[in-house]
Amino acid sequence: MQLLTCQNRTTLKERLYQDDFQTIMHLSLQKGQEIPEHHGGDAEVTVVPVRGAIVFTASGQSEHLVPGQLVHLNAKELHAVRAEEDSDVVLIKSARATGSVRGC
After folding, report:
1. What's the pTM?
2. Which residues pair with 23 in a beta bridge?
């Protein structure tokens, strides 16, 4: 078991963990801050808000996300993020197919 803790809420990006198959990042966004449209390369991406509220846009669809919700993207799927309030987000990039995605 490894305990991983987000240390710095002022840094936009902080790598929490990385191995050959996945990278886990902590993003700290200030209200109104945006990350323009981009993709995660060949990795599948899961975005999990843990504090605040963000607007997540992908494939022409925008969703208001708060803690308790998440978004999963296929490899190379374009997406953008905007913070509606000061927010912390955990981003998981997985280089291997994880099978079907199921909600709660």
Report:
1. 0.80
2. 18, 93
Q: What is the pLDDT of residues 60-80, one digit of tens each?
A: 899 999 999 999 999 999 999
| Cα–Cα distances in angstroms (integers) from residue 104 to residues 21, 59, 94, in the given order | 24, 23, 20
Indicate the residue type of 12.
L
Query: Mapped to the 3 state alphabet, what secondary structure does 76-94 carry?
Result: CCCEEEEECCCEEEEEEEE
DSSP run (H or E) holding 34? strand 34-38
2-44 pLDDT per residue, tens: 566 665 555 578 898 999 999 999 999 999 999 999 988 899 9
Count the Cβ atoms, other than its own, within 10 Å of residue 30.
13
Please give the backbone phi and psi of residue 52, each rounded to the nearest 5 degrees, phi first. 85, -150
Question: Taking a C-beta distance cutoff of 8 angstroms, is the pair 64, 55 a contact?
Answer: yes
Sketch out the chain's domains with CATH numbers.
29-94 (2.60.120.10)
